[in-house]
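I have a small job for you when you get a moment. Would you make up a two-line entry for one protein for me to read? No commentary is needed, just the two lines. Write everything out right here, beneath this request.
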Amino acid sequence: MCGIFGYIGPREAAPILLRGLTRLEYRGYDSAGLTIKGEKLQTIKRKGKISELRTAVNKEKPEGTIGIAHTRWATHGKPTKTNAHPHGSCNDDLSLVHNGIIENYQELKVLLIKEKHIFKSETDTETIIHLIEKFYKGKLEVAVKKALSQVKGSYGIAVISEKEDKIVAAKKGSPLVLGIGKNEYFLASDSSAIVEHTKKVIHLQDDDILVMTRKGYHLDNLKTGINKRDIETIEWKIAELEKKGFPHFMLKEIFEQPETIKNTLRGRLEKNKLDIHLGGLSIFDDLIPKIQRIIFLACGTSWHACLVGEYLFENYLGIPVEVEYASEFRYRKPIIGPNVLVIAVSQSGETADTLAALKEAKKLGARTLGIVNVVGSEIARETECGIYLHAGPEIGVASTKAFTSQIIALHLLNIYFGKRRNSISDKQIKVLMDNLEKMPDKIRETLKLDKKIKAIATKYADVNNFLYLGRGINFPTALEGALKLKEISYIHAEGYPAAEMKHGPIALIDEKMPVVFIANRTNGTYDKIISNMEEVKARKGRIIAIATEKDQKIKRLSEHVIYVPEVFESLTPIINAIPMQLLAYHLAVLKGCDIDKPRNLAKSVTVE
């Protein structure tokens, strides 16, 4: 959940490290620090955001062309200057940054203290640098290998020594990317921090040990002995990491959705063949007719997208579908029989719980497929095949464009499977394709509601609770709307199937309670939704309805109506998500919240 950046080359390291951390701040922003290797190691750390660190660096002006840096999201130890990374050895001649969790740090710490090592922080990370110090005899990579042999848990680390001109990095379960420049090298938790310097990258794999020097790099894998990895090219541009005039990344990413959905669809609709082009899935063509059960693994927003997939797949494919919280899946005894397909869904492709659950499913014999946004990510490599979203980098912590692109990807997968199982007719495929193609324009039209939604938000900036209610395929949309509000505005919100309101939540309804109803006319349970709205109105609840344009019946029951374009029913979760994203955004702005970096959250949850 933290951001790591490293640099070795001919230029002054400090400005490059600070720039890299700024790109990675969405991964952690409780504290930040860096170590520069000059004649000695100079470490500067600060609690708070990177701006605090930048002020300190500008004042102290560390000089050197080798350095490591870190922006932290606290796990072990509260956010303080002392607990901030980098962490040093007893004599501060070694320095280390770390992302991950060391599970056996307590027993290691007891042993190291007995050996007279001096601990300064409350973190699990500090045990690693003292282990490296214990084994260090003049060759850093040897000491790192020996230290990691004692460690249980996950890590992405970068280490430097006062005595050697090199950076040693290692990875297990936490992402690291090597950037290859002209006579200079970069290390980062993801390629967003590297792309302004080079587009040539290598994604490290588990148990890789990387040594970066001024002359080049060397890579070894502790388990396989492999010492070569393919150099990949980053496809997106630096401009995609900028706000482009928007006040926040989240708002920019909301408004990007017509293009991101177009990108997810691009080159995949073969209308002349009434088929979907997903080249990487061809290895599954023999399996697809035999699939007896599908299990989705995901967390957070991705889990909500998978719930939409459950409705979609069961309706069109006739396959039993389960949507599992990845964090719970591997702590019970999941039943994986023959011809079970497990689909892991994650924006980052790094989510620790999803990755761990995926590995467990593979051990039990499941076939695996991934839906991710980040090319070359852990889940993309761990699954047999999959679909990239091509939504571009998502910087805002609260996911927006990835959610809608995931639902598009699930529609593509649904058609691809349906064609090969003969469960979807050509007529149905044509209807689905025609409606998928219309979605960018429909979203563009919906985004014109921004000013109206902002005006509605001003009426509710002082409330403490919201309810979101939907039915059928839009129950997951209600969950997602509530999550967005909680994430960035810190307003308590709950999503429910509308019919479940009578089984408890109706007790909360009074004249102060706003209730967001998802009430598209295309919904097969539209009349039921109207009845639920009547119940809320009778109890003086404040109704905000998301309804199909020209629906006059809704007006009588609602304090506010947000009219969205009419779309095909299975695509309503996408069109309904847009106003809910905008409502959450504007409420958070009115409350003065930090939109792109909400408290206690990080973009990529790479620890359990």
